[in-house]
Structures are given as C-alpha cells and as structure tokens.
Amino acid sequence: MPVKVAEPARSAPRRLRGVSDPTPGPAAPSDPAAPTTLKVLVYSDDALTRQQVILALGRRVHPDLPELSYVEVATEPVVIATMDAGGIGLAILDGEAAPAGGMGVAKQLKDEIYRCPPLLVLTGRPQDAWLATWSRADAAVPHPLDPIQLAQAVTGLLRAEAPTPS
Predict the structure, then answer these.
(1) Domain-by-domain residue ranges, the chain?
(2) Which fold has domain 37-161?
(3) Is residue 93 a contact partner of residue 105, using CB atoms and an 8 Å limit?
(4) Global confidence as pTM
C-alpha cells in the first residue's frame, strides 16, 4: 500500500509585474488563480550564455517566488518588440552581446518603456559595474557567471518588485 507524504504548507506567491495571471486585479493569497509563472527574457547573441543563465536560475530561483519561464532572444529588435508587448517580469541582458550590447539595450528600455520591469545586465568583468549603473540597469553580474551570485541578484530584484502586504 503506497504511503502518502503530506506536503508542508506553502505561502502563496506574491503578485509580480509580468506574471501570467488570467484574472484582472490583485489576487488574494488563497486565490487559486494566483500567479504561477514569471516570464524572464534572456538576451544574448551567444546561445551558450543564454543556456548558462537558464541553468543557473532553474525553474524556481527561490521557494517564495513563482516559477520562472524563459523567453530566449538573440537580437536587439526582438528584445524591444518583446518588451513593448509586455508580460515580461524580468529581463537579463548580456552586456557582451554584439552588435547591440545589453547595456545600451537596457538604457533604451529604461528610457522608452513606462514602468519597465527590472533589468539585470551581465557585464564582461566586475570593473564594468559602473557601465551598468549608467545604463540604469537594476543589477549587474559579471562574467564568468556564478550561479549563486546570479540567483541572489535575481531574487533581490524579484522581491523588490513584489508588493508589500497591506
């Protein structure tokens, strides 16, 4: 006879911008229609870099946050079109991408998109953090990618975007 293991009670995920939610308005914590996935745009002209980001973050970066789904993008025009369309909760942009680097794309997104979702830029080296500041990115992580540092940065950004309970 199979034994059923009781799962521990989990708190409902917080509502985040860019989270897929079929119902309008804020979701109550016990609402079954509460958001379950957060779309993350990953931009790099290098498929290996995109895979490293996705593997480092996995499906759920933290138990308190919703599951992640990824939109992989290799060109700047597609980044702009995807971000303009909405529905993205976080964008991770490769500062070393060519011909359009992630820092320039980040600056353009922050200048052109009202209530732009958080942006994380992957810099070529730690000393390039000042360029990420110029681009108005919300966070920066240097190459080579450290999965723990990337996960901490993403968790910090997503928690900062979550509304506080009233």
Answers:
(1) 37-161
(2) Rossmann fold (3.40.50)
(3) yes
(4) 0.77
pLDDT digits (tens), the chain, 166 positions: 444 434 434 444 444 444 444 333 333 344 454 458 999 999 999 999 999 999 999 999 999 999 999 999 999 999 999 999 999 999 999 999 999 999 999 999 999 999 999 999 999 988 888 888 899 999 999 999 999 999 999 999 999 876 655 4
List, as own/partner pairs, every contact residues 12-17 make where C-beta atoms lie below 8 angstroms and the sequence separation is at least 24, other chains included. 13/64, 13/65, 13/66, 14/64, 14/65, 14/162, 14/163, 15/162, 15/163, 16/65, 16/66, 16/89, 16/158, 16/161, 16/162, 17/89, 17/115, 17/117, 17/161
Determine the Cα–Cα distance for residues 134 and 27; give it in Å rounded to an integer.
36
